[in-house]
Amino acid sequence: MAASGKRYIDVEYENRTVFDRAHNLSLIILPLRVSDSGPYECIVQKKKEGHYERIHGAEVKLEVVADFSEPEISWVVEEAGPRGVTFTCSSHGGSPRPRLLWWVDDTPRPGSNTSVSQDPRSGLYGVTGQLWDNGTSRVRLVCLVRFGASQVSRNLTWSPADFSEPEISWVVEEAGPRGVTFTCSSHGGSPRPRLLWWVDDTPRPGSNTSVSQDPRSGLYSVTGQLWDNGTSRVRLVCLVRFGASQVSRNLTWSPDLPRAKRSHALVLVLSGTVAVVCVVAAVLAARYLLSRAHKPAGPGPNSTHLELLEAARESRTGTAAGSGCGEPE
Hints:
Blueprint: E1 17-20, E2 26-29, E3 38-48, E4 51-62, E5 72-78, E6 84-94, E7 99-104, E8 107-109, E9 112-118, E10 125-133, E11 139-147, E12 150-158, E13 167-173, E14 179-189, E15 194-199, E16 202-204, E17 207-213, E18 220-228, E19 234-242, E20 245-253, H1 258-293, H2 303-323
Antiparallel strand pairs: 1-2, 3-4, 5-6, 6-10, 7-8, 7-11, 9-10, 11-12, 13-14, 14-18, 15-16, 15-19, 17-18, 19-20
């Protein structure tokens, strides 16, 4: 009420204020807005000689508090620049003006890129801040938003994502330098990995190693190759290291023996051929002996017997020399 006694209402409070006469003229403001924060003065006036005089006054400060939303924490695994993890915490819809704080493993940690915004219509605040970590081990995070005498927080336990157990495949190369190309792959992990090879317990440099990152999840995949001449048995280890962790796959590889199997088949074929030759030679020798046995008898009582012995000896000697079927020396 103005000094003239006329009633005056600020447009900001029009249709939002009620005097509660039953409770010592309490002022009720509904709905309450953040912009209602500030000092208020209660003045008691008394009419005297046609005008109102102030006889009492009191001031009170109103602070409108609106609870912030529970903070949300997201993270991105950084590939460029210093490699690690950038955590982002955000909260909104509260008042008064907030502060954003970080704890890592129960120790305060300074954040970065903290920004506070205020909605011009409602007067409510929003806050966002970031925290960087090397991401090499498991961490317990707390993002805390303080506003006035109140606060809200969110806890997060983060650890590097385990990569899948590596898979090893191989291709026997026929063109170019002949050998075996082994390929090892693993996926779905974090932070950025390294792929290493061991051959018979000795480190061996690989080739064509590539690392990719899923733009949505931030998780990595890795693939690499190793060449070997493939002439003998080898024991392989493909190892994927990420941060302080690692996964591996062992493989014992030996070349197939197709040439040895074909050589045995060739020996069998040759042996069969020699056997046939020997059988044919034996048949011819028998026919020769029979034909000589049926010839007319010559002079002397033992001529047929002597001719048979001589023919058998000639047949045996000739067959052994021509076919290799004779007795071993």
